[in-house]
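Dear Dr. H.,

I hope your travels went smoothly. While you were away I took the liberty of generating a structure for the chain from your last submission, since the lab meeting agenda had it listed for discussion. I wanted you to have the full record in hand beforehand rather than looking at slides cold. The sequence, exactly as received, is reproduced here:
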Amino acid sequence: MPTWLIILIVVIVVLAVGGIIARSQQLKRSRPAFERSLEQVNRDLAAAAASDRGWDRDTLENAARRIYAAEHGGEPLELVLVEVRDRPGTDEDEAVFRCGDKELTLGRRDGEWVHASAR
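The corresponding predicted structure, in token form, is as follows:
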């Protein structure tokens, strides 16, 4: 095998391995910002869906705080609306909140927001 071909193969392998390492480092550095951005988009989407369907955000959040406090003995440190499930009929509606590391699903009963398992 000619020397120039061996050198060419070695250079290609070194460049490929270096490129893979550089790309993985770049992804590792940018991943947290991407995930924060994605979470913000999801929160904004859930909030927009809730307000677009006539759901009052303050009423939802107050109900979530009240239900969380009743179950866990205190206010949640973080309360983020993560999903809105607008199904036919108001008694089928659901709102999902992330409360720290826990998830809380609210549902409607007679026009009031209650814990989904209490419906």
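Two observations you may find useful: The mean pLDDT is 87. Residues 94 and 107 are 4 Å apart (CA to CA).

With kind regards,
E. W.
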